[in-house]
Model the fold of this input.
Amino acid sequence: MNTILIKIRSHLLHFPLLLFQLLFPLLLTSYFIGCGDYRKDKITEEIITEEKDYSQVPEGLPALPVPEYNPITKESVDLGRRLFAEKIMSVDSSLACISCHDPGRAFSSSGMRVVLGYNKEPLNRNVPTLINKAFFPEYLWGGGAFSIEGIAHDVLSLPNEFNNDTLEVERRLSSHPDYPGLFTKAFGDDARPSAHFISYAISSFIRTLISGDSRYDKYIRGDSSALNDSEISGMKLFFSHKVNCSKCHSGPLFTDFAYHNTGTTTHYFDRGRFYVTNNPYDRGKFRTPSLRNCGITGPYMHDGEKATLEIVLDNYNRGGRLFIHKDTLMKPLGLDKQEIKDIVAFLHSLTDEEFIERNVMDFINMAGQEAETRRPSWYSCR
Ligand code: HEC
Ligand code: HEC
Done:
């Protein structure tokens, strides 16, 4: 145990100040989403939980699909987490995955309508959560990608993301004091920091982001006090034939993994699924997002155009705006104000707070913030 701890500590000591600067907004977010009792001994305990069985998922979720070519190991996950926050992979060392996928926001954007990519260029799509992505057969709002590895690899060179040359990324990590050793530990003696293994490590880390312990989950597992009356009414409406949310947001992940148009606007600048299939019938269709943790992933929809869950619900209540490919399930619902409130309350009960806090703490720990004395003064949970 002790040697493991020392090993981890020694990594932490080398951690660049840059990372802490990067994590500062993240620390703030974590402060706002609520605090637990993060005493030093508790953190230490978490760091040394070494022998985690990554195939274990919360009750009610499907079995975790892990590709044979990239098995999940503690070493690859730890390396992936560190790379996830590593800015030197972007051409001007300004961006990391974490800049857009904020752990305090369930790995979605930091609440911004328009997210800025490389050179502060606005991105045209909203940043989706990365939680439970291991279960998804296709990725991106239009389903244009088939593996997490593929996306992680592409980000390195995409002009509006890291905008770097993969050879340059490899050169930078190879001349770093820590990375070469971490890659051999994760992938074997011959492994060097290559774009291939970078994408493998980050993907393994993302595959471990499994969340299924929200208050709603506790309720359906038998804890009848986990939801209040308003949340229970909202849940009943959500699953009812009258409201039909669960026709598309179905199953334990609240998605049918299919593409629909929900009439969020009358003009779709982004053609969504059409870019992938070239089928005119697919214009304006987007993948049904999972609603787990949606209480903290706003703004909403593919373009981040809906700022709050109440605004999302208004659109559903109206039956969506006029659009030629709008789904036939989209029709006026006639919900009153209280019913809308109840559904929104139910959606908030899908947030897995412990999971979010644990992941935020993992990043804080990683940045060497394990000692209470070193925590910024405003981070006063107790
Ligand atoms: C500049 C912001 C930005 C950065 C940096 C960024 N992403 Fe993303 N990410 C996005 C956006 C926006 C999307 C949605 C794009 C789309 O649907 O076309 C996305 C989508 C994804 C998806 C697909 C999720 C889904 O629901 O299908 C994965 C996986 C992902 N990103 C991983 C990463 C990884 C790994 C990194 C770092 C190597 C990274 N991202 C860096 C903005 C960013
Ligand atoms: C016809 C299928 C369908 C039905 C019915 C449906 N949704 Fe959706 N939902 C979607 C799709 C598709 C999106 C993404 C649309 C987009 O980005 O343009 C979405 C987006 C959302 C979002 C935003 C999530 C995010 O991460 O951006 C929320 C919240 C939501 N739906 C809740 C509900 C609720 C509550 C109901 C019932 C009142 C409902 N949905 C009914 C398909 C559906």
